[in-house]
Design brief:
Length: 346
């Protein structure tokens, strides 16, 4: 079951609110001693998170299907980058990381118990069944906290961001589970930030014809320009216009470029940052631009020093020098102890 993005928490007493966890969505199937972890796009996840097998077999009913999120707790909150590192092809590497940065799983829905399909039951009833089924669960298996109080959910929206959570979910108390339908609601943080344009990527199958995404940077206190993410979602017309618009910035862009360490300009050009192991078929070739232009982008969440998701172009900022595009623009939410959230969920 999917979620629809909305601007604010819904009014009324028919809603149940949950924190929006920032991790890998997962369905867990248990049948006796067999356990299967499935990603949202149907990929198997068991081999990447072996440390969760024994705790899940201990916590779940003998036969069950549950919906939830895989997360990793870092020093100051949820660490999505550490979660991505777990998607490694080498079993030895996965085993090492499982010991160093073990994952947790947060569960929020019970879809099947025994031979009974629960998806047609109201969510409030499924939640009660889930609480009973996980009554003896221990970390790293957690039950997500819920509230029916909109004021409490609004407080979560503000405070939990410091723990790496990126919003609040709203579900109708009498709603049934509808796979593939956007019937849940999600409210996420939305902000704007001025960033430096330092490169771009050609649109898929349109090299030299259309721009696919813009590579963005922010300066740290030492004056180093960090790659923080991309801006995309342009119209076809705009992608074509950007080719001509960015052409002057391509001239001699490789000379002294701050990201030259990430690329061999004569051979394979790779985008700064970590390549997603979920997208091995996507090219990360990029073109440098002289970092002289500033643009404003909208975003929802920062994960460490990078944008968690793709940003959206708002406007050019010819009035602002690139040197002013620093991390100091960000309003940092004080870390909220993740243990306190987990304590509420078990």
């Amino acid at each position: 079951m999917l979620a629809k993005l909305v601007d604010a928490l819904p009014e009324g007493d028919s809603w149940i609110f949950e924190p929006k966890w920032d991790g890998f969505r997962v369905l867990v199937f248990r049948d006796g001693n067999e356990l299967f972890l499935q990603s949202r796009d149907l990929k198997p996840l068991n081999r990447y998170f072996p440390e969760l097998e024994a705790p899940l077999l201990e916590a779940l009913p003998e036969r069950a299907v549950v919906d939830g999120e895989l997360v990793i707790k870092g020093e100051s909150g949820l660490d999505f980058e550490a979660l991505q590192l777990r998607l490694h092809p080498a079993a030895s590497r996965v085993k090492k990381l499982a010991g160093e940065i073990p994952a947790s799983i947060v569960l929020w829905d019970l879809l099947c118990e025994g031979s009974e399909n629960l998806t047609s039951l109201p969510f409030l009833e499924r939640r009660a069944r889930l609480e009973k089924a996980l009554a003896s669960a221990k970390p790293p298996v957690h039950l997500t906290p819920i509230t029916r109080d909109r004021a409490v959910a609004a407080d979560w929206f503000d405070r939990f961001e410091g723990a790496g959570l990126d919003g609040v979910m709203a579900k109708e108390a009498d709603g049934v589970y509808q796979p593939g339908k956007r019937v849940m609601l999600k409210v996420k943080h939305h902000r704007t930030l001025d960033v430096v344009l330092a490169g771009f990527r050609w649109h898929k199958n349109a090299k030299g014809i259309a721009v696919g995404s813009l590579l963005l940077g922010l300066f740290d206190d030492q004056g180093r320009l960090h790659h923080v993410g991309v801006a995309a979602s342009f119209t076809e017309k705009r992608r074509l216009e950007l080719v001509e618009e960015l052409a002057p910035l391509r001239e001699n862009a490789h000379v002294g470029h701050p990201w030259k360490e990430w690329s061999d300009w004569e051979r394979d050009q790779r985008v700064p940052g970590v390549k997603s192991r979920w997208s091995r078929d996507k090219t990360l070739e990029w073109e440098p631009l002289r970092p002289e232009r500033v643009l404003e982008v909208s975003f929802d969440h920062m994960q460490g020093t990078r944008f968690r998701h793709t940003t959206h172009f708002v406007r050019w900022r010819p009035d602002k020098p690139p040197a002013h595009c620093t991390y100091a623009q960000l309003d940092v939410t004080p870390p909220y102890e993740l243990e306190r959230i987990f304590q509420q969920s078990i």
